[in-house]
Amino acid sequence: MKATAMTCCDLCDKQLAKSKRGGPHGYMKNLGDKRVFVSQGRLGYEEQDYQCLTCQARFTHSTNKNDQAWTLWEG
Length: 75
Ligand SMILES: [Zn+2]
Description:
With 75 residues, this protein is mainly β.
């Protein structure tokens, strides 16, 4: 199942299907800095944005248990 109607390359299609432990595919670059969220003195979770060099799709990777590991930016 495709996540969106946007055109993604094959690697990005596979990226969205990856489990939480999966790292970014080989043609992604970091977009900005990692964001670390701390709540009440405990390490919460981290987010890092990535952009695909092939199809320019942008992703956020989150370690938040309540979020999807990989989220494709809409629009
Ligand atoms: Zn891509």
